[in-house]
Amino acid sequence: MQPKMVINHLEFYYTKKQALFDLCLEVPENKILALIGPAGSGITTALRALNRLYELTPGARAAGEVLLDGKNIHDGDVSVTRLRRRVGMVFDVPTPLPMSIIDNVTYGPRLQGSAKKSKKALAALAEQALTQATLWDEVKDRLNTPAMSLSGGQQQRLCIARVLALRPEVILLDRPCSGLDPISTAKIEDSLTKLKQEFTIVIAPHNVQQAGRVADRVAFLLSGRLIEEGRTAEVFANPRDERTSDYITGRFG
Amino acid sequence: MKQAHFREKIARVVIWAAALLVMAVLGAVVVYILYKGLPMLSWEFLTQIPRDMGRAGGISSTIVGTLLLTLVAVAIAIPFGIGTAFYLAEYTRENIVTRIIRFSAESLAGIPSIVYGLFGFIFFVIMLKLRWNILSGALTMAFMILPTMIRTAEEAIRAVPQSYREVSFSLGGTKWQTIARAVFPSALRGIANGVILSVGRCIAETAAVMLTAGSALRMPASLLSPTRTMAVHFYMLATEGISMPNAYGTAALLVILIFLINVVANMLVNRFVGKKESR
Question: Do B215 and B92 fall within a single domain?
């Protein structure tokens, strides 16, 4: 099967500092790929390169190819807003916007002015997204209350629902469980394994154990370079590179 | 340890004393003006135009003049002020142009109002032949409040968490959608505070208005009529020794008006913003 996304010889710079070196990586469709590595390895950078969100950072630039269904996302005819609807992102801290729960979930769809959706269609979309993010039962009676009133774990699932409401093809999750309690973390991991049937997922897990629990494949990055990539079970049981084994066994990072 | 404790106590006393002193002085001023001025306020005072240079009659024309001038000045300044603020905060990175704009705005904020008055007089009244009227006064005041408006709005916009922008962009938002839907609602409270501050300055301004809007006591018929604002009226009554009681009456109404505008504006902002935020 053709991979959903392909990163080809990606070099990434923040002004003068290089953050990624000749990164080549395939993102398999309907799988969960985990990018692991110690802080400062370029994992967040790699995620932000997949939906061109790095362009918000002054001085950041990328060279090389990132293909989505075989099409380079840096091509001139690619609409960046459409790209970001196809490749959604969940951030490391829950970031509800200061509006109601329902308005948060429908924020993305409501931006698509041409395809103005009826209130009813939006509500259906929101219910579906919230259900998939396993949050519907907890919020269905208070959809119009401020999103800030939810707990941290609920807020993060709301952020996942907000991305799901876009009906994206790929979902990027940047340490989505940092700062969350174990129960919330378990809920999110649980929904991720269900979501992969419909979506392609790239996650930066907040620790190695989480990668082991949810990921089909893992890629180990160190100082902006890909060290090793493979099926999770294989990499964990039989790392080819000594540094991978040191990291996984917790000798550093 | 003991010394730290002692210092803590001293700091507390000093801070409390400073706050109390300020409150006391402010309270004294307001109470004195209301004490002297409130007895003057009557239905006639509010609804009749001044007679005999302000010795008799009311101050209705000055109230209308004040409100009209303030309204027009703020209406002119809002789009430019908030537009510039969004330009500075969202559409450019720091460069020579933004530094020039910011430096100019900050310098303009420190210029005495009489200088604005002189500029307005020369430019609007004489050069553009607008003459002394509400429009000239409002244009001059718009220039004067612009720096405050730009600065407060820019600060409010910059205070909006960067994550709101990232979320909006990551959900496929364009720059304008992000600003209009994610940034503006969060900055609204701060922006509104700047507008309220500007309204207060317009209502209270004397020198610049006297030089550009005139000091006619007639009821203004249009924006091209000359007018005398309450602050100017108060100034004339007091300095020319026309009528101190009426001067206090005008001052009391000024205080009440500014207070009312603050309350109403805050209520409006709360109604608009409060629903969306959790507090």
Answer: yes
Which residues of B sit within 8 Å Cβ distance of A?
93, 161, 163-174, 177, 181-182, 185-186, 276-278
Q: Are residues B72 and B190 in the same domain?
A: yes
CA distance A107 to A113: 12
- B158 has pLDDT over 50: yes
User: For A5-248, CATH number?
Assistant: 3.40.50.300
Please indicate, yes or no, whether residues B22 and B84 belong to a single structural domain of this protein.
no
Instruction: Say how far apart CA B81 and CA A71 lie, in whole Å.
Output: 43
Nearest Cα to A203, choosing from A3, A31, A54, A6? A31
Closest by alpha carbon to A18, among A79, A64, A73, A52? Answer: A64
Residues of B within 8 A of A89 (CB-CB) are 170
Q: What is the pLDDT of residue B94?
A: 81
When CB atoms are compared, the residue of B167, B174, B185 closest to A81 is B174
**In contact, B168 and A98? CB cutoff 8 Å:** no
Question: How many angstroms from the chain centroid is the CA of residue A47?
Answer: 7
Confidence bin at A129 (pLDDT 50/70/90): very high
Chain A and chain B share a number of CB contacts under 8 A equal to 71
Report, as an integer, the average pLDDT of B85-108.
88
Q: What is the pTM (predicted TM-score) of this model?
A: 0.85
Average pLDDT over residues B244-261: 93
Give per-residue pLDDT as tens, A102-122.
Answer: 999 999 999 886 456 788 888
Confidence of residue B278 (pLDDT cuts 50, 70, 90): very low
Q: Does A156 contact B at CB distance below 8 Å?
A: no
Q: The CATH number of the domain where B84 resides is what?
A: 1.10.3720.10
Q: How far apart are CA A34 and CA A230, in angstroms?
A: 10
* Structural domain range at position B136: 43-276
- Judged by a CB distance cut-off of 8 A, whether residue A44 touches chain B is no
Quickly state the pLDDT bin for A171 (edges 50, 70, 90): very high
ipTM: 0.92
Q: What is the domain partition of chain A in residue ranges? A: 5-248
Judgement on whether residues B11 and B116 belong to the same structural domain of the protein: no
| Whether residue B228 sits in one domain with residue B185 | yes
Cβ of A91 within 8 Å of Cβ of B168? The answer is no
My answer on whether B91 and B162 are in the same domain is yes
